[in-house]
Amino acid sequence: MIGKGVIDIDGREVAGQGALDGQVVVFSLAEEKYGIEISLVREIVKWSKTTELPQMSEELSGVIKLRDQVIPVISLRKKFGWPEVDSLVDTKIIILEIDSVSVGINVDDVDAVIDVPSSVVEPTNGLMGQSNMISGIAKLPDLLLILLDVRALFSSGVLEQIAQEELA
Q1: Averaged over 99-103, what is the pLDDT?
Q2: Residue 90 belongs to a domain
Q3: In this structure, what CATH number is given to the domain that contains residue 162?
Q4: Rounded Cα distance, 109 and 125, in Å
Q5: 40 lies in a domain?
Q6: How many structural domains comprise the chain?
Q7: What's the confidence (pLDDT) of residue 124?
Q8: Dihedral in degrees, nearest 10, Cα atoms 26, 29, 34, 38
């Protein structure tokens, strides 16, 4: 639930109400570390088998039922044009709430919740070409953290389409 903290896969609260701006959830995808702003994360769950839908897009893994809500799950590996992992059993699903729409993103693993001061974030300055889904790169002592703009991950109209289906 937004505002009541983020719950990790073991049911523990990992971030309380009033989380600081600059806190991000760090996750792994292939060999890289990515971050998304914590305010959009509702919870993190272990992989559960998805139900595939007819004529679903390539990047959609399917839908899951979570607390009586049907949530679409997007594979970030497919979204980025990468092959899936051999076994999805060890992967995680980050449940996001974006503009009152719930959507899951499938990632290899979730690592931590960390503070990222704006002073260490380097803007992409168009270096990423048309990849506007990267909002910046955080220069941390032991790694470069790729910060994703979650809203830009979804093509125009996808969130609106999901919201319409939730209302139906």
Answers
A1: 87
A2: yes
A3: 2.40.50.180
A4: 28
A5: yes
A6: 1
A7: 78
A8: -40
Answer yes or no: is 87 within a domain: yes
Q: How many CB atoms lie within 10 A of CB 134?
A: 17
**Residue 73's closest CA among 57, 86, 89, 87?**
57
Place 19 in a pLDDT band, splitting at 50, 70 and 90. Answer: very low
Q: Residue 11 and residue 19: Cα distance in Å, rounded?
A: 18
| Threshold 0.70, pTM exceeds | yes
pLDDT digits (tens, 9 = 90+) for 122-156: 887 766 555 678 888 999 998 999 999 888 877 55
The domain of 49 spans 6-167
